[in-house]
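FW: tagging you since you asked about this chain on Friday. Here's the raw sequence from the shared folder, copied in full. Didn't touch anything.
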Amino acid sequence: MAAVAAGLAALVGLGTLPAGAGPSDTGLKGAIDTILADPRLEGGAVSVTVADAATGEPLYQRHSGDRLMPASNTKLATSAAAMALLGPEHRFRTEVLSTGRQRGGVLHGDLYLRGSGDPTTLARDYQALAARVAAAGIRRVTGRLVADDTRFDTQRLGRSWAADDESSYYSAQISPLTLAPDTDYDAGTVVVEAAPGPRAGAAPRVTLTPRTDYVRIDNRAITVPAGRPGTLSVEREHGTNTITVTGGIPLGASATKEWVTVWEPTGYAAAVFADALAARGVRVAGPTRLGVPTPATAKVLAAHSSMPLKELMHPFMKLSNNAHAEALTKAIGHRASGRGTWSAGLAAIEAYLREEGVRTATVRQADGSGLSRMNLFPAEQLARLLLAVQDAPWYADWYASLPVACAPDRAVGGTLRTRMCGTPAALNTHAKTGSLTGASALSGYVTDAGGRRLVYSVVLNNYLAPSVKSVEDAIVVTLARSDTAEGVITPAAPGRARGAEGATDLECSWRKPALC
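HL: got it, structure written out here
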């Protein structure tokens, strides 16, 4: 990788260039400059880098050292650090333990449910744990059910996360004991489904997945006549697990689904596990208690292991899952220093980035997912990371987790599955998307028309347009259809192709059902 190292030095050396400056103009500079002159970016900020993936040689720079909000491109740093520091075979483990003695069908003492951060645990996994407890012959527990979530600290929400996002599933609270209602693994949420009632004026039928009394539904909505607009709203009240359904749903309309966060996911997991125990004939005498560490002398009665990290990377990165990013950040912190905190995890991620040659003095990372608007990354440092990880032993698994342009399968295309279709970038570029209000990013890899593999990072901020995704796409399509080594450049113009535009204040996969 000596050639890459030399190229990286050049990349850093060209870090902050005035608009229009850069390496010798082979035509690529003019093409990308023209794309970035799009009126939607007027008054905004751009940071763009393109480099040869094999050598690190910079091919295009535009304000590449400027620090901008990367949105979910932050997950590039978190995911790479997780693969390096936790390892691709890392599995989260959820355990049921006790210090008590079993006499016949009675377990004398408390029953502990201990989590280590698994964001993929489903209701059926807790049911399987309960089934193993019952299979051991236990019918009654004299003590309490104790939920041990002490692997992480008690800070549930990240720095500067918006208060009005609190009930939205992409802003779920983070706990080492949690529960996902679906196989997108949207940890810390329930699915609320509302269907029209039997007649106009009747209350809609509202159901929960998973079924649990931990959440209370306050159904104030009504069924309105067919043809009327739907105005249904589903919100959780701050500091509670009361979910209020208001507005109207037209008679004969399809059911509406909303993914809503719970308040205190540790209690949510414990409640679902307690229900699973009861369903299998295991009665716990005492009340459930949260946040108590398991005694060192406790013996494991049942355990569940998550999929390995290299597989978890796929729902995490393809669907840009924020809860996964934050659970991994705290798990990294616990692995590195014994403290499952954001500060410990971010310090370990920063140390890893520094080892890879990223200039961390130019970066601010405030969370693992990019939901915080305090995050700042220059495009050149995102590109630096993309170049550096190529020789990692886990690189192939990590690369496979990146969304693929125009790959129709959501598990492959992810947040890029409707973008750049019908172009040479389709099924070619593998990249991480990012979207917040006024912030958009796309960073990854693409092979050009001459077979040259390129790394690119495009970070756009402070625009007022609903979307600038087609500007990003035009840059990548230009790279894919050009022979950059020969200087044969075939520019693409920003368009408004289906799936590329629309309001992009959030990642498309953060809207349920997914619009991407």
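FW: The radius of gyration is 25 Å.
HL: agreed, and The longest strand covers residues 439-447.
FW: great, closing this out.
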